[in-house]
Design a protein that fits this description.
3-stranded antiparallel β-sheet, mainly beta
Length: about 70
Amino acid sequence: MKDRSFYWCRSCRQPLYATSSLTARAGRDWEIDHQQPADCPNEHLMPLTGTATIPEDLPNAPRVLRVFGS
């Protein structure tokens, strides 16, 4: 069974959604944002997007993501 990770915002502590699709090169194209609209100090960094193997490798991920599971 594959492990699952759950993402929460470090600033407002609200749940985030994460979607991705495979790319032609190594990695996935990610989009991560709040599940519900929120008044958040990290709003200017959202949605968190880019290409990476895992969301934790995206630019600004350490400032935005709080990871549970894995």
